[in-house]
């Protein structure tokens, strides 16, 4: 490795991960369930959900690959030759530890970790950081992290534009007739995070309020989605529990803005586009959602600027 490359900063881009094929679904969910394989019934249901959204073909992984490549391109524009991106996934290969190991093998001694999730929780983003930090310490890589970027002006602009576009589409579809509600949503977490003074819920409300204000939306609320199937209580109400109440209030159309997610994946393509849409239809309502960020240039700039800022802050400590 050249002297120049030795001075490069690694960027560990972390995400939840998705299976690469239908054959990987069981191993993927076994990892999520901490070594406990899903029951045959649950596995069949999970495979059915993937079949419904991708027909057994997996473009979902490409979204994360594209975001990592997009961030690399944006960093190269802003700081030529300074950064090199690596991928690390929570529940699929390459795992978080694999990404750190690759950096170390390439001679990287300084790195920034960032998660493809804007809002911090000790149970989500915090767990990614912990795994990365432990492996980095073991391999002699000095790491700093972007904890959150939920109020970065550029991600707020990207989300606002999507809400405005979504409302315009819905208004046209309904000929301007009937009440439209904006529902901001994010992945639920166990209720016990409230006992930990975890910032996740508050950060999501901050993002939602900022986007609603910028989009001049007054009729909105926040709802949870995609809770895990465990015995402990999860944050609610779920969007499927919210919709009947909106129908009773006279809401005719719902625009879902899943601000807790940054790409098209199961929780969006199935939980919202299929399950929630069908539930709304049964209640006599139209349900649509905003387009996901994926490789939006404003999102790539948000990530790149957050990485550079984190590195600069580390240098000043």
From TrEMBL:
GO terms for biological process: heme biosynthetic process. Belongs to the ferrochelatase family. Pathway: Porphyrin-containing compound metabolism; protoheme biosynthesis. It holds the Pfam family Ferrochelatase. Fe-coproporphyrin III binds at residues 16, 33, 49-50, 128. It catalyses: Fe-coproporphyrin III + 2 H(+) = coproporphyrin III + Fe(2+). Keywords: Cytoplasm, Heme biosynthesis, Iron, Lyase, Metal-binding, Porphyrin biosynthesis. Involved in coproporphyrin-dependent heme b biosynthesis. Catalyzes the insertion of ferrous iron into coproporphyrin III to form Fe-coproporphyrin III. It is an enzyme of class 4 (lyase). Fe(2+) binds at residues 187, 267. It is found in: Cytoplasm. InterPro entries: Ferrochelatase (IPR001015), Ferrochelatase_C (IPR033644), Ferrochelatase_N (IPR033659). Its main location: cytoplasm. This is Coproporphyrin III ferrochelatase. PANTHER family: FERROCHELATASE, FERROCHELATASE, MITOCHONDRIAL. GO terms for cellular component: cytoplasm. It comes from the Bacteria. The keyword Lyase applies. The keyword Iron applies. GO terms for molecular function: ferrochelatase activity; metal ion binding. Its EC number is 4.99.1.9.
């Amino acid at each position: 490795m050249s002297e120049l490359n030795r001075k490069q900063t690694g960027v560990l881009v972390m995400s939840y991960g998705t299976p690469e094929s239908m054959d990987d679904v069981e191993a993927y969910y076994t990892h999520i369930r901490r070594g406990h394989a899903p029951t045959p019934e649950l596995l069949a249901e999970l495979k059915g959900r993937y079949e419904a959204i991708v027909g057994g073909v997996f473009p979902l992984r490409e979204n994360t690959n594209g975001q990592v490549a997009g961030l690399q391109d944006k960093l190269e524009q802003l700081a030529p030759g300074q950064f090199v991106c690596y991928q690390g996934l929570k529940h699929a290969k390459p795992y978080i530890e694999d990404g750190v190991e690759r950096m170390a093998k390439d001679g990287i001694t300084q790195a920034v970790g960032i998660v493809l999730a804007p809002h911090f929780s000790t149970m989500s983003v915090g767990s990614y950081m912990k795994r990365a930090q432990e492996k980095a310490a073991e391999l002699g890589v000095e790491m700093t992290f972007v904890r959150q970027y939920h109020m970065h002006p550029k991600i707020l602009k990207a989300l606002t534009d999507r809400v405005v576009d979504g409302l315009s589409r819905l208004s046209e579809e309904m000929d301007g007739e009937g009440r439209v509600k904006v529902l901001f949503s994010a992945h639920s977490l166990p209720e016990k995070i409230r006992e930990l003074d975890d910032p996740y819920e508050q950060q999501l409300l901050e993002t939602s309020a900022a986007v609603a204000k910028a989009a001049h939306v007054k009729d909105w609320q926040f709802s949870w989605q995609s809770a895990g199937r465990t015995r402990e209580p999860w944050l609610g109400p779920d969007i499927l529990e919210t919709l009947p109440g909106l129908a009773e209030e006279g809401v005719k159309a719902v625009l879902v803005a899943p601000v807790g997610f940054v790409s098209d994946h199961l929780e969006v393509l199935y939980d919202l586009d299929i399950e929630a849409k069908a539930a709304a239809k049964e209640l006599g309502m139209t349900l649509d959602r905003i387009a996901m960020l994926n490789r939006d240039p404003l999102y790539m700039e948000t990530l790149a600027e957050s990485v550079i800022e984190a590195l600069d802050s580390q240098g000043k400590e």
